[in-house]
Amino acid sequence: MTIPRITHDPGVMGGKPCIRDLRVTVGTILGLLASRHTRERILQAYPYLEAEDIDAVLAYAAWRLEEREEPLVVA
Asked: Does any domain span residue 1?
C-alpha cells in the first residue's frame, strides 16, 4: 500500500517513514497524538504540516498494524 504523503528515504531520518520527505516521522506524530495533543496543537507546533498529513499518519499506522508476516513454508 502506498500513502502518498508518507515517504521513505534512507537519507532522511535514517529511512524512517516521514511526512512528505520532511524531517518529521510518523512515529513523532503518533506519539504526540497518543500523548493527547490535539491536531490543532500539533499543527501549531509544526506549521509546515497540513491536516491531511495527520490523516495520512493515522492511515499508515492502521495499515502497518494490519500487516501480517507469515512464516515461509518450504515444501
From this structure: no
Comparing 67 with 20, the larger pLDDT belongs to: 20
Domain interval for residue 33? 6-66
Based on the structure, what is the number of domains in the chain?
1
Distance from the Cα of residue 57 to its chain's centroid: 4
* Alpha-carbon span 25 to 53, nearest angstrom: 11
φ and ψ at residue 60, rounded to 5 degrees: -65, -45
How far apart CA 2 and CA 57 sit, in angstroms, is: 12
Predicted TM-score (pTM) of the model is 0.84
- DSSP helix/strand/coil, 62: helix
